[in-house]
Predict the 3D structure of the following.
Amino acid sequence: MKIVHIINSLGQGGSENTLFKLCKYDSLNKHFVISLTGTGAYYYLIKNLGVKVYCLNLNFFSIYKFFYLIKLLRNIKPDILQTWLFHSDLIGGLAGWFAGIRNIIWNIRSSNLELGKAKLTTILIIKILSKLSYFIPAKIIIASKKAKNVYKDEKYDTKKLKFIPNGYDLSILKPNQLERLKFRKKIKVNLKTPVIGCIARYAPEKDHLNLLYALSEIRLKNINFYCILAGSNINKNQELIYKIKKLKLNNNIRLLKSQKNISEIMNGIDVHVLSSSYGEAFPNIVSEAMAIGTPCVVTNVADAGCIVNKTGWVVPIKNPNKLAIAIETVLSEIGTKDWIIRCNSSRERIKINYSINKMIKAYNIEWNKVYNKNV
């Protein structure tokens, strides 16, 4: 089958990463990708797979490009049109409909629709999409179990909702002692020092302050630890630097820019912390850490707790005290037999429930259902 994907952009992001993996690992279908905006990191990665990629550089005033999109879809004649994220669900869904395509699948990646946290324009688009959901998409794929209730409240056609979790390649994401040594050498921390990691861009929803307050409580107890914060807008972030100094965490925390080699950093740390207060759906970073055998402490946002299950710790959002208690438990367990069991069970959970093959199979089942229904 010919599968055309329409996505907002091809920069760094969880949706872009999942789209890339579909194009890379699905050998049963021919894929085409259309970015509503420009290029980005995943533009080159997807293009290097031999997939045809189009960039529309669409903006509010370029209405003629909407008609170009319709024409492009008519020329490609896809068997399945899959749109990613709200803006693409709306623009791509309508373009596909006007192009005469009926095998349209929306792909929703968000579970947070609160006004003040989601943009007003996004909220308005969602209201429109809820009406269109009854006749434009044949199927609506969601990446979060908890999202089903959210979209039910938004009056989406819930009969079309299908949960497909993200999948991960465990031949790439795996324990590697050499990477561990390399990373520890890079950050100049010995193997005996427990290292906490938080890999997330600096944004309100990631709630880095929640983690800093928790670490401050631990420092006051003279517990030995080192923490790595890495992601976009982290390194040289003056707001973070000021807060770290104020909490007297200068000797315990290091800020790094966004890391390309997730495997190296996850092997280098002992535990990963997700301190988010909202904005998550199915956080890839948690699954990637666990796939490598790195246990996680997560706040109870979206599907984070479902991913971790009994292999790690789930704490309430915006509760530094509970987060501190969980991290203290981690630090006391590292190096014990229980810790080795926990590391192994973390990887095993991803292997059983969230493998890349399982994800590809699930998408193919839904694509075939939609295609065969409308043949």
Observations:
- The chain has a mean pLDDT of 93.
- The chain has 15 helices and 13 strands.
- The longest helix spans residues 356-374.
- The domain at 177-353 is CATH 3.40.50.2000 (Rossmann fold).
